[in-house]
Design brief:
This protein is α/β, with parallel strands linked by helices and 329 residues long. It has one domain: TIM Barrel, CATH 3.20.20.100. It has 13 helices and ten strands. Helix 3 links the parallel strand 5 and strand 6. Helix 2 crosses helix 3. The longest helix has 17 residues.
Length: 329
């Protein structure tokens, strides 16, 4: 396993990590989660990602049960949670969502209870909150840091301007600003990581915990000939995800990428993940596998990075044609 520093912090995270979005509770049970987390950990993965809203809290409870059973040395792994959406779904009441001090503090405490741990290594504001002053959010996160309930705080799906505003407030009041951002990044979604955040990397440093490196599975090639019954695109309530990614032009590109991956002697998924972590601004890419073989294949991305010569990278660009203008990667 390769480990990278999270932005300018001293924290080292495995370049491949394991997440629970969609899969925990909706696709897999405790036994499978236990097996997959064990395989990930045994292969050097030290970051496990979660959020209050995943399966409305059940995802964190599942991960908590697995962690308690594993009895791993707490200093050997990192766990995250994210707050914004709440976990009560349609039953959410005022103050049970957003980035107010009240919700962030209560969401942190609830996550600790569900995960059965004493502190969160990483805690994210899952989305920007237009109704809460950024000063309040930064102060709330600093409060949790001082209490020792979280070790690093960050953002997810914030714009570059919003992240820099948080840093401005932190500098003004001598507080600790966000260490990391969790954006989507893959061969179809590239602008934020490759263009928008460039000045942030240079000026204040920014760790990135990438979600959906396989574009919700599209870049694995498993949707090249339709939608498998046990896939997330087939799940009830996830039509929006299917409609977003199941586009003819994108499927055609993935089919060509699959042909090229075969020529290189690897899989579409491993090649796509390897491409993602080839970017030095990626601290870690979160895997969302639901099967043992799927996870083992994803982990092979580490070996595939050695195949990504400039010529291979150019060939991938020629197939995908998704490189943003002014991208530095």
């Amino acid at each position: 396993m390769e480990y990278r520093r999270l932005g300018r912090s001293g924290l080292q995270v495995s370049v491949l990590s394991f997440g629970s979005w969609v899969s925990f509770s909706k696709q897999i049970n405790d036994k499978v989660a236990d097996s997959l987390m064990g395989i990930a950990y045994d292969n050097g993965v030290n970051f496990f990602d979660n959020a209050e809203v995943y399966a409305l809290g059940e995802s964190e409870q599942m991960m908590g049960r697995v962690i308690k059973k594993k009895k791993w040395d707490r200093t050997s792994y990192t766990v995250s949670s994210k707050a914004f959406f709440g976990w009560r779904g349609k039953e959410n009441k005022p103050n049970q969502t957003g980035n107010s001090r009240k919700h962030l503090v209560e969401a942190c405490n609830e996550a600790l209870q569900r995960l059965q741990i004493d502190y969160l290594d990483l805690f994210f504001c899952h989305r920007p909150d237009k109704n809460t002053p950024i000063e309040e959010t930064v102060w709330a996160m600093n409060h949790l840091l001082q209490q020792g309930k979280i070790l690093y705080w960050g953002t997810s799906e914030w714009s570059g301007v919003e992240i820099m505003e948080a840093h401005r407030v932190a500098e003004k009041y001598k507080l600790i600003g966000p260490t990391m951002e969790q954006p989507q990044y893959n061969l179809f979604e590239r602008h934020k990581v490759e263009v928008e955040f460039n000045e942030i990397y240079k000026n204040v440093g920014l760790g990135t915990t990438i979600w959906s490196p396989l574009a919700s599975g599209l870049l694995s090639g498993k949707y090249n000939d339709g939608i498998p019954k046990d896939s997330r695109f087939a799940l009830q309530g996830f039509d929006w995800l299917k409609d977003r990614w199941m586009v003819d032009d994108r499927i055609k590109k993935v089919k060509k990428l699959s042909e090229y991956a075969a020529k290189l002697g690897t899989t579409t998924a491993a090649l796509s993940i390897a491409w993602c972590i080839k970017n030095p601004h990626v601290s870690t890419a979160i895997l969302g596998a639901t099967k043992k073989q799927q996870l083992l294949d994803n982990l092979k991305a580490l070996e595939v990075t050695a195949l990504l010569t400039p010529e291979v990278m150019e060939k991938i660009e020629a197939i995908m044609k998704t490189k943003p203008a002014s991208a530095e990667f």
